[in-house]
Structure formats: C-alpha cells, structure tokens
Design goal:
heterodimer, A: 250 residues, alpha/beta, seven-stranded mixed beta sheet, 46% helix, B: mainly alpha, 0% strand, globular
Chain lengths: 250, 84
C-alpha cells in the first residue's frame, strides 16, 4: 500500500472507530451499568472498572485493525498488585488491556476527573486522585480498592513522554508498595510514541509491542534507607533495559 | 542542628527524590521553571519533607505559596524553629 494511502487508512480508521465506539459507549454504558448493578446486583465500583477495561480492550482491538499491535503473552499477575506502565502516547490508557486483569483501579492526576462523562465514571469507579490527595488518603483509597479485589495501576511518569524516552518517576506507587507490601508489576509499552507523539495529531504506522515483566517485591527493599526510592530505581532500571531491547527488536 | 545542616538535608532529600544534581539546587531555583517540578511533585515533596524532618506541612497554607528552593529553606527553618 503506498505510504500516503496507508496514512489516510490508519488515521481515518483509528479516529473514526474510536469516536464511534466512544459514542456507542456513551449511549449504552448507563444501561449496562444499571443492568449489572440493579438486576445482577454487582458491586458498583467493580462494575464500572470492568466496563472501563472493556471499553479500553475494545478500543485496542479496533486500533489493531489499522495498526500493527501485538498483545503480550497473557499470564497470571499476582493479585492484588500494583502495575506500573510507561506513558508514551495518548493511546497508552486504552492499551491498559494489554494486561489481563479487568478490575483495574487507576491512579490519575486531577485534570482527567474534570473531563465530561469520563470524569464522572472515573469517580464512580473509585479511581484515585494522586494530585490533590495526601499519601494517607491515597493509601486508604488503595486499600479499599484492593479489598474489592482490584489491581492498582499507575503511569509513574505522571504525564506523556516529551521525547519518547522514559521520564522521571513519581514516588506515589512506590510509597504505596512499601506501605501495603503489594508487588510491583512493570508493563512496558513501545511504539506508541512513534505512532502518535505528544502534541501530534497525525497517526503514523509503526509496531506497537508490550511486555509484562516479573513482579518486584517491596520486602527486598524494606531495610534500606529511602526504601521507596530504591524500589523506584529498581523498577525503572528494569523497565529501561526492557524498553531498550524492545526498541532494538522493533 | 544548624540552619546550614538543615538546608543540606533538604537539598539532599530533594536530589534523591527528584533525581536532581546538587549543583542545580541553588536558593533562587524556581521549582517549576528551573527544576521542572509540577503539582504532582509537590505531593512527593510534602511526603519526603514530612518524613525527613518529622513535621506536618500538607495543610500549611504557607507551603502553597512556595515558588523557589530559597522559599522552601525559609519555610522549613521556620517550622523547625516553631517545633524547637
């Protein structure tokens, strides 16, 4: 396929399919939510979390119709755990479905809570606001989500990469790991920066790949000075090596 | 502990937490423009300073108006004086 035609195909396909699926979601999700929570009596936050995961999973499948996307080998994750993923592009939150857990509680900055519709559902799903809450509150909300069998998920860079490289990590998920003892599972995503870098609108064809790495257990760092920083460094260096290898293979 | 030692501890804690070089940590350094720290970093800063000095600063209104490292030094020194 000529490059120009390929660009039109991928951009029209991805934008249209995501917009249509999102509009469909806006219409059907209240009905689904009412059915699951009122008729089937499912737990409310868990229902919302699973619905959001399903929205991401379907979006990712739609993306893969137009772009070269492969899922990692789906394997069991320790449950509960804290998943930390790198953040290269707008598409990464959709690709949360790269990991197999459906009951995901995301830790999010303050501004997404203000997005119409999305923000409302995020609040109902019990997503954690890591920007305005203090650590005690964050830990409390995280424990509540874990009690509801949720897996916690962070983008520890806090924002999309400015240059495609892994940025500085915030400490939130690592404090949380040290306080709760939950293992940290790194999820590495490559290719999404080449596909759509920050500030860009034109989607480019590329390979999107991901890997779920071995869990890193906080107890190995318990006796160290500034344990959360040591844990953070260990997780980040593992992710840097993995992302480098994945980029070389691409 | 002298003021100079407190300032050294503050700088060292921030360097570790935010992967900064010690020579970047001059009093006139603005958190946002010079050190590239944002509101999410402010959450981490509160945690690290509270742990380092055993003080409570989260709900302190004066903390919200801090813009430079020098402001932070002054704020923490005042807090330590209050606690003494």
């Amino acid at each position: 396929m000529p490059t120009f035609v390929k660009l039109i195909w991928i951009n029209a396909g991805i934008y249209l399919s995501i917009i249509l699926w999102t509009l469909t979601g806006v219409v059907i999700s209240p009905l689904c939510y009412l059915f699951f929570t009122r008729v089937l009596k499912w737990d409310k936050p868990e229902t919302l979390r699973r619905m959001i995961w399903y929205y991401g999973w379907t979006s990712s499948k739609l993306l893969s119709l137009f772009a070269d996307i492969k899922w990692p080998e789906q394997r069991e994750l320790p449950s509960p755990c804290i998943i930390v993923a790198n953040h290269e592009s707008f598409f990464d939150p959709y690709l949360v479905s790269f990991q197999p857990q459906q009951n995901i509680c995301m830790a999010v900055r303050n501004w997404p809570f203000r997005i119409p519709f999305y923000g409302f559902y995020m609040k109902l799903a019990g997503y954690i606001n890591v920007e305005t809450d203090d650590l005690d509150n964050i830990v409390k909300q995280a424990r509540q989500a874990v009690d509801q069998k949720a897996t916690l998920m962070f983008f520890p860079e806090g924002t999309r990469s400015k240059n495609g490289r892994l940025g500085r990590f915030h400490s939130g998920p690592f404090h949380l790991a040290m306080q709760t003892g939950l293992p940290v599972v790194p999820l590495c995503i490559t290719g999404t920066y080449r596909m759509l870098p920050r500030g860009g609108m034109l989607i480019r064809p590329t390979k999107v790949r991901s890997k779920i790495l071995e869990p890193i257990h906080p107890e190995h760092f318990r006796n160290k000075h500034n344990a959360h920083i040591e844990l953070r460094r260990a997780v980040k260096s593992t992710m840097i090596s993995c992302i480098r290898e994945m980029n070389q293979e691409a | 502990m002298t003021d100079e030692e407190i300032i050294k501890r503050i700088n060292s804690a921030l360097a570790d937490e935010f992967e900064l070089e010690m020579d970047e940590l001059v009093p006139e350094a603005a958190f946002k423009d010079d050190l590239d720290l944002d509101s999410l970093d402010a959450v981490d800063m509160v945690i690290v300073l509270e742990q380092e000095f055993g003080i409570k600063i989260k709900k302190d209104e004066a903390f919200k108006s801090i813009r430079t490292l020098g402001d932070l030094h002054t704020f923490i020194l005042a807090k330590k004086d209050e606690a003494a």
